[in-house]
Amino acid sequence: MTSPDTRPHQGSPDRYPAGSAAFPHRDLTGLAGLAPWELLYLLDEAQQWVELNRQSHKRVDRLKGLTIINAFFENSTRTLLSFEIAGKRLGADVVNMHAAQSSVKKGETLIDTAMTLNAMHADAIVIRHQSSGAVQLIADKVDCPVLNAGDGQHEHPTQGLLDALTIRNAKGEIAGLKIVICGDILHSRVARSNIHCLTTLGADVRVCAPPALMPADIEALKVTPFHDFNAALAGADVVMMLRLQQERMEGQFIPSPREYRHLFGLSLDRLARAKPDAMVMHPGPMNRGIEIDSNVADLADRSHITRQVEMGVAIRMACLDVLTRKARGLEGWA
Known about the structure:
This protein is α/β, with parallel strands linked by helices. The chain has helices at 36-53, 78-89, 110-119, 134-139, 157-171, 189-200, 229-233, 257-264, 268-271, 294-297, 305-323; strands at 67-72, 93-98, 124-129, 146-151, 178-182, 204-208, 224-226, 238-241, 279-281. It has 11 helices and 9 strands.
């Protein structure tokens, strides 16, 4: 068993600047506006943790003595568990705060909650919230790094990064790939973070959705919109499916789940329109038989859905490591 290098990776001049210049931000609240080398730096940093997580001994003491608070105001299974595992594998003390058990339910304002969390002197706070912009509001009120675990319809940056890492590990490079994102684009923070990340890294991104679930100004994000899923799939290298976010919908957005599946569900026949080695992805949770058929979701050598979960732990370890380096007084990050 090989031991991971416990030192932070040094910047490579041909990929990104050295030291903290590779990722000079205190927080990670979104991927919009990040430079290509900043995204590449986080992806490269995550690769060491992919290898560690596949070993029998998965714990290091890089964040020993640090306290991380996972403040989840919105329900989550995969993201909360992934952040908790990430923090513990780095040796940090991890505390989970669930909104149902918090003073928010008693009428406390978000700012008061932020001030309370800040008074506990955490070394990093991971926040998931149902309102867009809530994470940035808290980040502006606390003294430690803040990581966005999903806020409303705004962004889910670590999901965008883990998807990029999954694609890069399977395809080698992201630049030039034809990537289709299909589903509820309008309500999806996952779609937004993926669009920001993948277009910045040079991918040709196509988004496909019914007219009612396609943002009106989507072309401004440098993607090509489609309402015909069959046309969008032609020559695709990657097909990423999204679920219908019924919890964010008010009114009738689709005629019926059966009609939606007929037009926008990923079946084996429909997947055949993409390249023969096209990857199948889904951020979860999946609605099998609606946006994706089970025989596609479980397709050997083509479905990377469980690999996405694996990459999620590595990405979150990398983000926690990078954002706490200044607090740890590391050379080049102070």
